[in-house]
Predict the 3D structure of the following.
Amino acid sequence: MSGTFPLAFSVTSGKGGVGKTNISINLAISLARLGKRVVLLDADFGLANVDVLLGLTPKKNILDLLQGASLRDILFPTPYGFSMLPASSGSMLSLSTGQKFELLELVSELEDDLDYLITDTGAGIGDNVRYFNLAAQERLLILTPEPTSLTDAYALIKVLKQAHDVESFKICVNMTPNEKDAKNIFMRLHHACEHFLSGVSLDLAGIIPRDTEVRKAVIRQLPFCIGSPGCEASKALARLAATISEWEVPKHLDGNIKFFWKKLLFREN
Ligand SMILES: Nc1ncnc2c1ncn2[C@@H]1O[C@H](COP(=O)(O)OP(=O)(O)O)[C@@H](O)[C@H]1O
Ligand SMILES: [Mg+2]
C-alpha cells in the first residue's frame, strides 16, 4: 500500500465482555492473511489482556515506551503475522492526557510501515475509551444481542457525538445465535440513533456467531483463527477483514497530522 496512509481504527464497546479483545486479535490475524501490515495497540490499560489471550509474554510495554524506550523495542512481533504494542496490566490504571497524546505521537512514527493500526479499547464511556475512539479514523463498535449491550453502545455513541462530534460508526454484532437476531439488534440501535442523534451514521460491518471454539481458544491461549481456522467464528472474521480492507483510507492528510486526528485531540481539552 505504498503511497497511501494507514488506517487507524478502534475496536470498542460500551459494555464489557462483548468480545473486543478476541475480535481485535483475530481481525489482526485475518487482515495479515490478506497481506496487510497490522499493529495491534492494547489500550485497555489496567485490564490489558491481548498478551494473555495470545499466550505471549512481551518483556516491555507501553509504560516503558513512555519512559523513554524506543518504539522498535516495544513493538512485539507475534508468531501470527502481526505486531503488538502491549499494555501493562494493572500498573498504569490511567494515563494523563499528555501521556496519551505522547503515545499516539510515538505510534504515528510507524505510519510508513503499516496498513492498519487496531486499537483495542476498554469498555465504557470513560476518558481513555473516548480518547482512543476520538483519535481513530474509524470505530468498530461491538454489540451483542443483549439489551444492556444495546443501551451501553448507544451511550458511547451519544457521548462521542455530543461531546466530540464523532459521527461515523461501524457496527459488528458478536455472539449472535443467528443473522436475524444480529440484524434486529443493529436496526434497534440504528433507529435510536436516527431518532435522537441526528447526523450519526451506522454501518453494519460484520456479524460473528456465538461459537464454542472462541471460549476454547481463550482457555488454550491460542487465537481461534489459528487453532480452529475452519470454525464459524474464524470464517466470520475473514469476512469482516475483507469488508474492512474495502474501507476508504484517507489519501492526503495535513503533514503534521499523520494518521491520527490530532486536531480532534486538541479539541478535547
Ligand atoms: N463469538 C463468540 N462466541 C462465543 N463466546 C465468545 C465470542 N466472543 C467472545 N466470547 C466470550 O466472551 C469472553 C469475553 O471476550 P473478550 O474478547 O475478552 O471481551 P472484551 O475484550 O470485550 O472484554 C471470551 O472470553 C469468550 O469466552
Ligand atoms: Mg478486552
In short: The CA atoms of residues 164 and 268 lie 7 Å apart. Strands lie at 7-13, 38-43, 76-77, 83-85, 116-123, 138-143, 168-176, 201-209. Residues 147-164 form the longest helix (18 residues). The chain has a mean pLDDT of 89.
